[in-house]
Amino acid sequence: MAQLVEHSLLLFLVFLSPFVASAGITELNSSSPLFGIEFPPFNTAVADTGCDGMLVAAEEAREEQTQPASASPSPSLKLRMTHRAAADMAAGRTRKDSFLDSAQKDAVRIETMHRRASTRAPGAYPPRRALSERLVATVESGVAVGSGEYLMDVFVGTPPRRFQMIMDTGSDLNWLQCAPCLDCFDQIGPVFDPTASSSYRNLTCGDQRCGLVAAPEAPRACQRPGEDPCPYYYWYGDQSNTTGDLALESFTVNLTAPGASRRVDGVVFGCGHRNRGLFHGAAGLLGLGRGPLSFASQLRAVYGHTFSYCLVDHGSDVASKVVFGEEDALLLAHPLLNYTAFASPADTFYYVQIKDVLVGGEPLNISSDTWAVSKDGSGGTIIDSGTTLSYFAEPAYKVIRQAFVDRMSRSYPLIRDFPLLDPCYNVSGVERPEVPELSLVFADGAVWDFPAENYFIRLDDSIMCLAVLGTPRSGMSIIGNFQQQNFHVVYDLRKNRLGFAQRRCAEM
């Protein structure tokens, strides 16, 4: 527990100082800008356009007959996404408190991912054909309300009400804290009240979709399949879980067309009456994993097969956007846009296949077995928006750590026995310390080059540390959201690939 607290204290310091990258050697700099991206303007109004939007087979069949295969989707769906900093400061929480929670959640989350990966979930539904709309959301830093996660604005129910939900590509279930809230964590704003929405209805225990979630430890017998509700239990770790009734509800989403919105009926979500864990401030969680119950999977008939996001700096009070729909022209024209194929298995998590790690432009001697997925489902590498820092399997981490130690300038004294993070350096009086470059090389040849601010932490004026940690030999490696900051990250499920390009996410 002492180590976990030390981990948390250091994570809190992660976001105190921005950096910038230069060619060959990466420099730390608190003032230089990053590359930018533009998104369509966010429509803050929520208006029901009258378009039904139900995800039904008949609608998909009509689209198959009337829309050419090459037709491009029209306006995108948009949701507001923020990091938690602004809300937390308003609530009186300190950054220290926020990152104590964040570190605890990271540790529990990783343990949970290891267990979930070794017990594969049922395969996802086959991809649906896109209709004619693209959807867009905004994203904000979530540090301020309790963790290093990112929050999306979602409008739920009839009439639609706004809720801030954690964006999580590492889980599938969408859920909100619901009244009556029998055992709930603190959140900003009121919990969702099913009785106040005319479009809410429970999913019955006899519904086929009820079989996609785990029942509570003592499930009730399904005596009336067409009437009794479907209870669920979904866990993220020893301290994080949600229990309630699986239900259907209308989600109102903004489109890229000015002033346009669309109501999507019959979205499956968890109405959580008992919720515990490190979700402080958020109203619930929006799953963007590959499973059939995730928000990304359920709305695929509306927006197609691609979604993307661009994460603002941790601690930023500026919102950026997540886009559900085909890539925009600005991104496709980006000279540094790169793609790598998703690796199997393809259940909840988005796996990628690392081949090499470059430090200072040189490949490291890391066994290929380190990156492999074991027969029991453990290992491999995933990209995850819900984990804060990046974690590499212990054998790889040791080699990466030593590579930085060997290549760092001797003008920066190594700080011995610094808690948790390693290596750390004394950079007192140095405005722009130079650090070796870090790149990931994937099995298909794609290369992800990271700026220094995505893998080094300037803790204060004198201390700078490597911002990656190790996981057990059997554990999976994770590219966390800190390493994804200021990159436009694209999940292309039609072509089964991940795209990435450096952008200025706050300038949107």
Description:
With 508 residues, the protein is α+β, with helices and mostly antiparallel strands. 15% of the residues lie in helices and 31% in strands. The protein has two domains: 2-34 and 331-502, Beta Barrel (Cathepsin D, subunit A, domain 1), CATH 2.40.70.10; 57-62 and 74-107 and 123-217 and 226-327, Acid Proteases (Cathepsin D, subunit A, domain 1, Beta Barrel), CATH 2.40.70.10. The protein has eight helices and 29 strands. Helix 1 crosses helix 4 (95-117). The two termini are 40 Å apart.
Summarize the structure.
It holds the Pfam family TAXi_N. The protein has 8 helices and 29 strands. By secondary structure, it is α+β, with helices and mostly antiparallel strands.
Question: Could you list some keywords that capture this structure?
Answer:
single chain, alpha+beta, Cathepsin D, subunit A, domain 1, 2 domains, 18-stranded mixed sheet, globular, disordered N terminus, protease
Q: What is the CATH superfamily of the largest domain?
A: Acid Proteases
Mean pLDDT: 75
Percent of sequence in beta strands: 25-35%
Number of domains: 2
Largest sheet: 18 strands, mixed
What is the approximate shape? globular
- The stretches of 5 or more residues where confidence is low (pLDDT under 50) are 1-24, 29-75, 94-100, 119-134, 142-148
Which fold name is given in CATH as the topology of the largest domain? Cathepsin D, subunit A, domain 1
Give the helix tally. 8
Helical content, roughly? 10-25%
> How many whole angstroms does the radius of gyration measure?
22 Å
Structural class: alpha+beta
CATH class of the largest domain: Mainly Beta
How many beta-strand elements?
29
User: What is the CATH architecture descriptor of the largest domain?
Assistant: Beta Barrel
Distance linking N and C termini:
40 Å
Protein name: Peptidase A1 domain-containing protein
Keywords: Aspartyl protease, Glycoprotein, Hydrolase, Protease, Signal
GO molecular function: aspartic-type endopeptidase activity
Organism: Digitaria exilis
